[in-house]
Amino acid sequence: MNIDKEKLKGLLQAETTSWSADCSEWKRATEALDEFLGEKTVEEVALALLEENERLTENASSRAIRSLRGDCADLLAERDQLKAESESLRQSLADHKACIASDNELFREANLECNRYHSVIVAVGELLGISKEEQDEEEVTQEELIEAINELWGQVHGMQEDLDEYKSEHEVLRKNAERFQYWTKCWSREEEATLPREVEAQMNSNHDFEIEDAFDAAIGKGEQS
Question: CA–CA separation, 114 vs 56, rounded Å?
Fold first, then answer.
């Protein structure tokens, strides 16, 4: 119902007030109200206004419900987002803790390696005649120790070369001793100062043989028999 509610309110107030006034004023108020209402009675207008009020109330409730539903949906979406962010943060925290644990392990291993390296440096210094106390007092630099290590390694390498040379010489002497012992044994058996028959046989069968090779072949054949 489309009605000017403010004007209707004023007319009704005037109608109510005119009850305590004279008849002429009450009549004017009644006429003005009738003119405003037209063919409708006060009761019809009142019922129409009540229906409109109920409809507006229902619409307001519906809007409120829809608004609340929308708010609830927004809150649920926000809750899910916060839950996902919380899970992501939890995983990041777990990864961070694992990274810290890994870094601590790496630091521990590096510290052990540094201690081992320091022990080696101290030991090398002591081999060079520099005690740990002297190293601390004289502040021997790492470069000096490395130079000393290289020098010591050169000496060790030279000693190894000498040892290999001594081994080669020892092998030559050992073979010569075996040949001499074999020749002596053959002399005592054959009672003649000539080459043993086995040696001559080896040299005759292989003309490329030197006498040392013939002796070695004869000795090897004798050991096999």
Answer: 84
Q: What is the pLDDT of residues 143-162, one digit of tens each?
A: 766 777 777 777 778 888 88
Per-residue CA distances from 25 to 13, 22, 35, 42, 65 (Å): 13, 6, 15, 19, 49
Backbone phi and psi for residue 159, each to the nearest 5 degrees, phi listed first = -65, -35
Query: C-alpha 184: how far from its chain's center?
Result: 77
- Read out DSSP for 124-155? HHHHTT--HHHHHHHT--HHHHHHHHHHHHHH
Number of domains the chain is built from: 3
149 and 180: one domain?
Answer: yes
Residue 124: partners with Cβ closer than 8 Å, 6 or more residues away: 145, 148, 149, 152
- Choose among 11, 42, 40: nearest CA to 28: 11
Asked whether residue 14 falls in the same domain as residue 82, the answer is yes
* Total H helices, total E strands in the chain: 7, 0
CB neighbours (10 Å) of residue 37?
A: 15
Q: CA 150, CA 157: separation in Å to the nearest integer?
A: 10
For 109-148, letters b (16+ CB in 10 Å) and e give eeeeeeeeeeeebbebbeeeebeeeebeeeebeeeebeeb
pTM for this one? 0.29
Range of the domain at 171: 144-224
Does residue 121 fall inside a structural domain? yes
